[in-house]
User: Fold this.
Amino acid sequence: MCSIGEDDFGDEGGTHAMVAGSVPSGIDLSPGECSKCDISSDELFQLNFRTPECRDCFLAYVRHKFRAALGAAKVLPRDAEVLLVVDGSAESLVLLDMLYYAQTQNTFKRLHCSARMVYLEDQPVQGRDPADLESLEALSKRYEAFEFYVITLGLPVGSLKLLKDYSPVAQESNELIQKLSQLRSLTSRQDYLQQQRKNLIASVAQKLHCSHVFNSSISVDLATQLLTSIALGRGGSAALDVALLDDRLAAGIKLLRPLKDLTEQEVQFYVHAQRLQPLLMASSRYGQELGDAASLQNLTSAFVANLQKNFSSTVSTVFRTGGKISESTHPEQAKCNHCQSALDVELSDTLLAIEYSRSVSEAGVRLNEAIEDPEIISKRRMKLNDELCHACSSIEADFKNGS
Amino acid sequence: MPISCKSRCGNRAALKRPKTGDALCKECFFAAFEAEIHHTISSSNLFRRGEKVAVAASGGKDSTVLAHVLKLLNERHDYGLDLVLLSIDEGITGYRDDSLETVKQNRDDYQMPLKILSYEELYGWTMDRIVAQIGRSNNCTFCGVFRRQALDRGAKLLGVDSIATGHNADDIAETVLMNILRGDTARLRRCTDIKTGGGEDSIPRVKPLKYSYEKEIVMYAHYKKLVYFSTECVFAPNAYRGHARAFLKDLEKVRPSVIMDIIYSGEQLRFKDTVKKPVRGICTRCGFVSSQQPCKACVLLEGLNRGLPKLGIGKKSKGDRMIAKQNQELALRERANLVKNDF
Assistant:
């Protein structure tokens, strides 16, 4: 059977094809003359689609991306209190370094906000060694202007401590770990954990009186997030999952993603230019060790990583698609109890079709003798969980089966 | 221990429904599968009594099951529809000629009239000849663009009120992914619609199998012993769609409900006001639906007839340059001829 459909042809003509092409990875810096300031230097930073430039010109360019993201959208009010989530990854250190730099500028260029940082200790959940306190302390020392807090994922916000007062406690279990163990599939566990992380961050921000939270996702993370949200049935709220500003956090706290336009290469170069030292343990996500085929999230990251390797321009297309969508909601619409996204379950024919399938499977050949119309049964079932969005009710359904 | 059917009909389960994970016996599966399609048709008001509906038939599993189920439901629930089969013969030796035999078998089995339209009679070109001209790359562009219009032409010829196509849930989910991968917001907007077109000058297309899983369609065809044709086209497969398809199949293995979830996501997507919307119009040359002037089919055909098969492939400006160059050469030759004639 031919599977070519009308959707395979663009207005420009021709089948759309993913253009094969890869971005050279790794850092390979050669000496030469900067094409911008004409000063020769030992290390020229050659980004894709840009001419080689010296360290200073490169830093000015990347830092501008960060400032432009915040400035153009006017999302950060003057003198806002900001909470920076540091997980030790290269991206989070870049964000930290950029913010630090922006604050140490002269009055004219300074970013007017005061920032604190928080490290989420996920050792008990991930089941690995506790954070390397020495590296954290080194980090705290380098950026002394920022207060550095630590909290363990799964513990109440009351356990938030300054790094200097913090000592790791080996933990066997907490409420979050128990909840996670009740979920049958890794897909649900990862999805649930992501929501819980956000909730914890919001509580920390609230406790520290921060109105804004900075998250260090870069373009490829957001491309992955967009496809993941689509696969989880979170299409209606996917726009907020990848937007600069996400306002679904509790107490009106706003989550910002000021690095959303950065590429992996820019992060790599920045880390090199500023001699940053990403923490090793940040390299794996929860459940990643179980393999690509263990969950929808793992599969999607593997898919995007493969695209990045072989069709790198497709990744930026996906990311830019994320920039074109908006949230499907109007103000008076009810919100999901779990993820705070707008609820629109009741209006969907597709969700009705899913419930209808279940009802008619149960009725089978005796469908005609059924006392009640399966459509009515389906609609009633859809109403049972009317405080959760579709994706969150999938998590909930996974709970019941597991316990 | 044998598993018994979920519906408690007393039979042993013969299969596990991919869509819900329920174990069912054959008869209960048929009942559920058909009831769902009936529900899709009635809840979305796809058809009205007395309408004439063309079933786009390729001889493959989707269109065969569609024709079978539509005929069955039309009788069972008295839709009052006049069903006809509409096939397009692209002129691909070793592929379409064989699959058309299957369609003819369907015509006899279901007692439905069949109309076959060929690229040869519509455009003066068969796919075999087009491939001889353009080679193995980009040939699917011609086939797809021409087929879309050929269906419209056929529908007009038959005077039908709508065209039913065999797109299943997997196809739609895959298209959502594909359109995200290439940032095509115009198609992302409409690819989940169960009914497209249907303005003043176009014939609507409907997808009654929108919520039917491909796996279940195959099961249904298998257990009902329906005759269908299952060979890949002899020309190049579409690598792009293949990529999205492979991804979707992997996702489905992890969580079968992902297909419906992706369709739901696709439906929930909204776009910023700044995103351009396509305007559907009518091609000034051929009078069929198009979002550009002239329509793609006309451009491709012009390219073939001018001996510039690459004309409609790639950017329009490139095509314009090709035409200008050819016109210039023709004019030069004409002038040379004039000079010769003077002697």
Remarks:
- Residues 186-207 of chain A form the longest helix (22 residues).
- The radius of gyration of chain A is 24 Å.
